[in-house]
Design goal:
By secondary structure, this protein is of the alpha/beta class. The chain has two domains: 265 residues, Alpha/Beta hydrolase fold, catalytic domain (Rossmann fold); 181 residues, no CATH class. 36% of the residues lie in helices and 11% in strands. It has a nine-stranded mixed sheet with strand order 1-2-3-5-4-6-7-10-11. It has a two-stranded parallel sheet with strand order 8-9. Strand 6, helix 5 and strand 7 form a beta-alpha-beta unit. It is globular and about 70 Å long.
Length: 476
Amino acid sequence: MRLALTIPFLAITAMAKCAVIDGGSQPPATVPPSSTAYWFDQPIDHFGLNNGTWQQQYMFNATFYKPGGPIYILTPGEAAIGTYYTDKTYFTNLAEQTDGLVVAVEHRFYGQSNPMPDLSGPSLKYHTIENTLEDFAAFIRIAKSDPDNVFPVAVSPNSKVVFGGVSYAASISAWMRATYPNIVDGAWASSPLIQYRYENYWLDQSWGKHLAALGCAIEMAQAVNELDEVMFSGNQTAIDDIQARFGSPQLASRDFAALISAIITINAKAGVSTDFEPTQYTVCDFFDSSRSNLDSYALAVSTLIDWLGLSQQALTQMADTTLGLDNYALGQVARVWYYQSCAWYGDWQVAAPASTGLPVYRSRLVDLEYYTPNCKNKFGNHMLDRVDSEGFHNKWFSILQNVSKIYYTAGSLDLWRASSATPREGTLLPNTTLSPTYLIDGATHAQDISAPSEYDLDSVQQARDIGNALVRQWIL
């Protein structure tokens, strides 16, 4: 068994200002390495609360660029940038086909792009979606109007811009097209999250549908019920024993339940485009009539822990819901993401409440009470007791209505499909030729943006073909 993983790495080479190169009709003789990091000055707050500045990191691949070609802007969203984003996504293939330039721009407060010196509550108040979008818009304005200021190669002024991303970053790409149509000429939103809920148990239901397609949804639901019988029993000896069987360190019951739920969903059926043959093993392969469903669940999790090489210390850190309450150091991705949930949209990933009558595929210990009390503890008493998820959703969903030149995709086995533009029935947004929605049969999360592979599903390639045709229309 082997698990194919792609882990982007962060380039650390920095340059203060890009060299000015005269324009011309020929591509540059020397192309800078795509691993080089560059920096762009941004206001801490674009809306006047703090006039200080910070440096946003970006990288680019000009290998295929010719004057007049488009600029493809990518952001990894909640991750650091690296050459994966400049070299190893489908946008690099698009750049080769269209003489384009690929640019990866880091999201504020992720990677090395930090507007403030720490991640305290007062610092993170500048972490808003409005500031985030304006960061990208400010960069694009300069890239289009005065490219010599940001690129050390000759780039044509007023180049067409296509914004792309996956998952949360796909939402950003759609919001950029909707908010700044004068500078973003099109957006490819792969598996975007466009429906936000305070209590997101639909992620768990999508996981169940995924398991049903693989043939073990009933068994997993039964395993979770067996697990909860132990976890709610109050029998500490039995609880300690079950944690050991799952390969987990001794944790508080809620932390353990959340940890194994997160780990098991990592092993969603592969088929993801990588440079390696996708693993042929799935969660369902571990369910065997010779053992109980709970033992099968434990074996699946413990095996995956071994595959991923997760130490007991790493697992303990993953399960730390405090995320270091008194540790405000930069570089804590989980802390920044948790702030977004607390301050922006909620979308807490929980088991379906008993009142819904729905089956559960994660322990009922993973509920709202597990997540929400920490918001004030982490970020200060000014945090709302309940974030306005409905208000966030209404605002950022409504701006996507009737916007042209956005391409929405999602996989039929995507765990996030219920939050995408194509939930289980119909589409959330008008499916028009102006902004079409395509459901990729048999695919999981954001496979169309992965680099092409001989193992790709035909449906994935079809999704790319549709995207190709749209992009060519956008950049005319």
